[in-house]
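= Protein in question =
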Amino acid sequence: MKKTLIALIALIFVLPLAACSNTSKDTAIKENTSKWHKTISGLEVVKTDKYGNDRGYIARTMKELKKVNESVIQGTVYDMSKIDNFNNGAYTKVTVYVDKVISGKKSLQGKKIVLVMNGGITTTNSWYKNQNQTRETNHDILVQYNEAPLPKVGSKIIGGITTIEKTEPTIYMKTIKKNNLANTNTYDLDMPAFNFWIKDSKDKQYHLNNPKATKELKVNPEMAKSIKNLTDELNQKYNN
């Protein structure tokens, strides 16, 4: 009886703390949404078919998804921030709150991690440097990769992540270092074109964050079917 009473008292204290934590997170996300909207408001959107950071192996099954990534997470886009980009590059700092670790490092659950994602704010002179550019007044632009558009603050995501490789000689890694993001909580998002799922407030289910995926996968019906089955499995298990 005494043990039961102690457990009930503990539960009484834990539940309000959990509710307070969720309220605090929701409030912060709402504020971060407003801040990001102000940051990108009025910017010219430049869409590109370039390949950005699209590393990794295209997993076709849940088993493969878990095998080729250090961790597979389900999370919420907590914040998005402009960073300094190199010429011909455009990336954004995306802070993700890890709601659930599907596989891998369980200690990440309930923590915030950083993903440096394709697309972001830069200038026309920087983006078109050494390219055939129509002469125009230099101004800020928002670059969006057609295969990997930036998510929205508050979006739910599922994807595979790995520890960043600090020695790689890429613009992506140079950008991470330039912005002092080469930290233990920064991870690579693997295969964002075909193994990154998103669910916005208007969506009922997770779907690939690649508007071109259906068209691109038509050339490989077997892969298209496998990716669809994997998407269905993720929705069945984690769309709650």
Notes: Strands lie at 44-48, 71-82, 91-103, 112-118, 120-123, 140-145, 156-163, 186-189, 196-199, 207-208.
